Amino acid sequence: MIGLYPEFLRQTTPSKGGFFDALKDVTGLDPLPFSCARAALVYGLRALGFNRMDEILVPPFLGQCVLSALARTAFPAMTPSRRTKGVLVVHQFGYRQALDSIEREAAKNGWVVLNDCAHTLFSSYEGEAVLAWGDFSVASFSKLYPCVLGGALFSRRAEMIQTVREHQAGLNSGHAHWVETAYEVLERVKRDPQMPGMEFEIDAVYGYLPNLVAFPPKAFAGLPSTKTEILEDIARRKKLLNLIQSYFPTSVLRRPGSDVVPFAVPVSGEAAVLERISARIRERFLLDVPVLHFDFACNMLNPDYRQALMIGCHQSWTEEMVMKMCEYIKGELT
Predict the structure, then answer these.
(1) Does domain 19-222 have CATH number 3.40.640.10?
(2) Residues 148 and 222: beta-carbon distance below 8 Å
(3) Which of 21, 150, 247, 299 could cysteine-pair with 141, CB 3.0–4.6 Å?
(4) Looking at the whole model, is its pTM more than 0.90?
(5) Out of 3.30.390.50, 3.90.1150.10, 1.10.630.10, 3.40.50.920, which CATH number does the structure's domain 227-333 have?
(6) Looking at the predicted structure, is the pLDDT value of residue 108 above 50?
């Protein structure tokens, strides 16, 4: 079954470097490696002086693991109050949020802007990387590549980066063993998701991952090592987006001024119909195309959440496969 997330890469090739240099060339920003995006989020908040009495505004449908990570240094809330100190902007599936209006509201209220770019590593807005907006951004490489773990923090605030580096300096070597252990557990889960007792190991790993600053060396085997490889994957994802838009011109969101590099492509429709189509696609094509909530307004301060069929875009989703599936979906929707 092919799903939204990249499949585990079963290979024995040695770890390859070059990824972070290539990533900097593509984004124009210097990545600060972490074990995962959640760890980058925690240490970024600490560097900005957040504590458990400070609230951070979050959108609905946020994963439990992200909420748990946030709760280490702040209090997640869905409505602003006098204690609100920051806003977590989650750019779903590669589609940037309404950055201008969110930043205006943040400036008016003195909020820090945190960019969750787990799905939006390469998307841009008016010629500038979404990563470059806000006070800092975090990325999760395992959302795009078959690397199991790995994330990074990005920021143009030099004093904040210096503080984060100082925190990392004394912890990297001590965390190396634990991030290797976390990688091995998640690797086993990828190989055999039905292994008895794995849910307890996953809970344990997710419990300590947000504390780990060390980047997992084994993750390099699943990451591109050159700028060319990254750009080829970006072009492939955008080609799939254009293909899906050609089948569903009124059901796939278009964002003026944005260059969307999708993690997945949401296709709108009646919820019950989409659920039926999703189930049939699993049976007919062995593809997991789930029905998830997507903010079609792309504005967490004034959202329009509706259910949508999510079509994946990673390397296992071939153009031929997506065309056949879109033909089927189009027939079911008409």
Answers:
(1) yes
(2) yes
(3) 150
(4) yes
(5) 3.90.1150.10
(6) yes
